[in-house]
Amino acid sequence: MLWSLIKILFFVALVAALTVGANLLMETGPGVRLAIGTVEFNLGPLQAVIAALVLLAAVWAVFKIAGLLVAFLRFLNGDETAISRYFNRNRERKGYQALSEALLALSAGEGRQAMSKAAKAEKYLQKPEVTALVTAQACEMVGDRKRAEAAYKTLLKNDKTRFVGIRGILGQKLEDGDTATALALAQKAFALRPRNEGMQDTLLKLQAEKHDWKGARQTLGAKLKHGGMPRDLHRRRDAVLAVSQAKEVLSEGNSIEAREAAIEAARLSPDLVPAAVMAARAYIEQDKPRYAARVVKKAWEAQPHPELATAYAEIQPNEAPKERLKRFEQLLRLKPDHPETKMLRAELLIAAEDFPAARRAMGDLASEDPTTRTLAIMAAIERGEGGDEAVVRGWLARAVTAPRGPQWVCDKCQAIASEWGPTCSNCGAFDTLDWRRPTVSENTSSPTGAEMLPLIVGAPARSAAPEAGDADVVDLAGAKPAEDGTEESRGDEPKEPEAARA
Ligand SMILES: [Zn+2]
């Protein structure tokens, strides 16, 4: 609105100025005298103005002709489109107009509009490397995958846009679940731009999925080199890959290489439990028990874990329970108050048949933290001490429905893995498995456990089990049969149905 007003005002001013100028010329008398060489021209005022205008037009024409001449010379030089381009300046303007409209439509989420504008821009501009990108994104937006793929393939033809083209097709292949092709594409894209962080991560994930541990370690190295990863995280992830590599090599039967990889993994990340376990076994095979013990102890200090205890036991597979208990003392004293230490000590004492000591080792762990394992240990202690069958069953009944305690849990999707692995089997994320308690309550999701109870412990325990709070457990644990009337009756309960069943 304002702009049109300004234009009108400018036009009025121009006309006024011209009139004033013409009047001035008229009044200056004889006009302009031009001398070119020996020829003289005497121009009247109006003629002078016309001559000036003709001169202007001539200069403009000379510039135009010069431009055309340059284009013609370029054409002779081999640039075939030079002349057409010269005539196509106007088309170019229209083309960029259409392109900017296409981009705007794309940002506005109007896929179809963007597609038609991009096609128009392509008609005028003939620059597929620019318009194909917009077309591809617009096609993806409206779900036209075939045309999107064709557009990405156009991008592959140009050196500058090849990476973007590969990335686009890679995204489509990943969506289709064609990971083999996706991996090949990711490798190509990574070779083109090793610094691209998104591509590094995609490639790493695909390599881990395909168990290409060696390649994944190289990618990880590139990530570190290009500053995409802190050094300590790199060490940790490299160790994860190294231990995965070791597992793979071991399953292929090459134990020497596997040992070296495992030992390297444990050296890179001493607190990585699976690495420490594998390295300990590698040292045991090499007949280096001291090294094995050292690796296990180092990992135990960072995080006590039952698999570490298993590996520590394997150092002396045939020792007597009492000797084993003595040897384990070195491990147990590292983290004396950790629940894992308490349970391990209790288990070793149970094996050595020192049940009262095992009960002391457990302390009130089973009532503070009732898990399948703590309750099963209590049941074993009870049985070992010659406790009543009903009490043992009471512990076992609770163990069935108790949470399982720490497990390998994915930090990303919270899925529980039965065995450690470099990637989550549920969501495919890399290095997300952590040894901890699941955040989702297991009790709510296992109603079958409660339904199985009568089968396991016999009918009367069904009444005892649901009300078995922590106070009850202490009660049950301390229960000695036939000590007083109340306990006696409790103890007698399960015997009736047993007799009935028999
Ligand atoms: Zn996961």
Ligand roster: zinc ion
- The total of helices stands at 27
Stretches with pLDDT under 50, minimum 5 residues? 443-447, 459-502
Instruction: Give the class from helix and strand content and strand pairing.
Output: mainly alpha
Helical fraction equals over 70%
Q: What is the overall pLDDT average?
A: 82
Largest sheet: 3 strands, antiparallel
How many strands appear in the DSSP assignment? Answer: 5
Through-space gap between termini = 102 Å
Percent strand equals under 5%
Shape annotation:
elongated
Strands of the largest sheet, in order across it?
Answer: 4-3-5
Radius of gyration: 42 Å
In short:
By secondary structure, the chain is mainly α.
What does this structure look like?
The chain is mostly helical. It is 71% helix and 4% strand. It is built from 27 helices and five strands. It has helices at 2-27, 45-76, 82-87, 89-107, 111-125, 128-142, 145-156, 162-176, 179-192, 197-209, 213-225, 231-251, 255-268, 273-285, 289-302, 306-314, 321-332, 339-351, 355-362, 365-368, 372-384, 389-401, 447-457, 459-464, 470-478, 485-492, 495-501; strands at 32-36, 39-43, 407-410, 416-417, 433-436. A hairpin with a 2-residue loop joins strand 1 and strand 2. Helix 13 crosses helix 14. The longest helix has 32 residues, at 45-76. The protein is elongated and about 135 Å long. The N and C termini lie far apart (102 Å). The model is unreliable at 443-447 and 459-502 (pLDDT under 50). It binds zinc ion. Zinc ion binds at residues 410, 412-413, 415, 424, 426-427, 429, 432.
